[in-house]
């Protein structure tokens, strides 16, 4: 018989049982500790996954909030730009009424174009100044205005009322130049009601033949 073992009968058979149980007990405890550690590790990994999932769910909201902020900022800038552009057009009408030509032409770009009501009136700034400065000015009062912005470019159209000509229309373009809005093109015209359009165009054709 081996040392440190005892013999006992189990259904007629002789079985050797270790006399010292401490090693077996330690091995069992080690196994239990390993299982516990594995369970804790799995729990940590699961919690980490849940946190990542929660963050992933939160990120679209945070992204949407960021986008909303950017949109609001763009709208604020656009609104500010359009107010500044509208002020330029208001001053244009004021200075032309006062015949204050220095201030009037300062609102245009140097390469600006003015298109008048006559078919021959497509003028650069030098030609337009030559026409304007000898006059006492002209008055056009704002009735309605629309502005459309594309970056540093604003398109506008406005209905005006003239004591001399009645309903008139101004259209054109402003370009942000050195931080200020300047008029790149202004086109003045007289809108014709549809009911009398053929009558007016017939007269125009006759006038052009002369």
Pick out the low-confidence regions: 1-21
Helical content stands at 40-55%
Strand order of the largest sheet: 4-3-8-7-6-5
Average pLDDT number: 80
Structural class: alpha+beta
> Total strand count, please?
8
What share of residues are in beta strands?
Answer: 25-35%
Between the first and last Cα atoms, what is the distance in angstroms?
A: 142 Å
Order of secondary-structure elements: EEHHEEHEEEEH
Q: What can be said about the biggest beta sheet?
A: 6 strands, mixed
The coarse silhouette is globular
* SS field, number of helical segments: 4
Q: Report the radius of gyration as a whole number of Å.
A: 44 Å
Task: Draw up the topology in text.
Blueprint: E1 5-10, E2 13-18, H1 22-98, H2 101-105, E3 108-115, E4 122-124, H3 125-132, E5 141-150, E6 153-162, E7 166-177, E8 180-189, H4 197-209
Parallel strand pairs: 3-8
Antiparallel strand pairs: 1-2, 3-4, 5-6, 6-7, 7-8
Q: If you had to describe this structure to a student in words, what would you say it looks like?
A:
- This protein has 210 residues and is an alpha+beta fold.
- It contains four helices and eight strands, in the order E-E-H-H-E-E-H-E-E-E-E-H.
- It has a six-stranded mixed sheet with strand order 4-3-8-7-6-5. Strands 1-2 form a two-stranded antiparallel ribbon.
- A hairpin with a 2-residue loop joins strand 1 and strand 2.
- The longest helix is centred in the first third of the chain and has 77 residues.
- The chain is globular and about 65 Å long.
- The N terminus is likely disordered.
């Amino acid at each position: 018989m081996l040392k440190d073992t005892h013999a006992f009968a189990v259904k007629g058979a002789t079985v050797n049982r270790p006399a010292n149980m401490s090693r077996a007990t330690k091995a069992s405890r080690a196994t239990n500790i390993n299982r516990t550690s594995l369970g804790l590790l799995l729990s940590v990994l699961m919690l980490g996954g849940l946190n990542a999932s929660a963050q992933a769910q939160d990120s679209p909201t945070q992204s949407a909030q960021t986008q909303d902020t950017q949109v609001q900022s763009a709208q604020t800038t656009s609104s500010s730009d359009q107010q500044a552009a509208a002020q330029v057009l208001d001053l244009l009408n004021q200075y032309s009424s006062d015949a204050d030509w220095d201030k009037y032409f300062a609102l245009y770009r140097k390469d600006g174009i003015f298109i008048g009501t006559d078919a021959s009136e497509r003028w650069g700034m030098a030609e337009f100044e030559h026409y304007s400065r000898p006059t006492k000015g002209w008055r056009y009062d704002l009735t309605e205005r629309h502005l459309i912005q594309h970056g540093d470019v604003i398109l506008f159209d406005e209905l005006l009322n003239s004591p001399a000509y009645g309903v008139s229309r101004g259209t054109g373009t402003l370009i942000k130049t050195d931080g200020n809005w300047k008029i790149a093109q202004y086109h003045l015209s007289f809108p014709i009601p549809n009911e009398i359009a053929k009558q007016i165009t017939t007269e125009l054709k006759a006038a052009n033949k002369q």
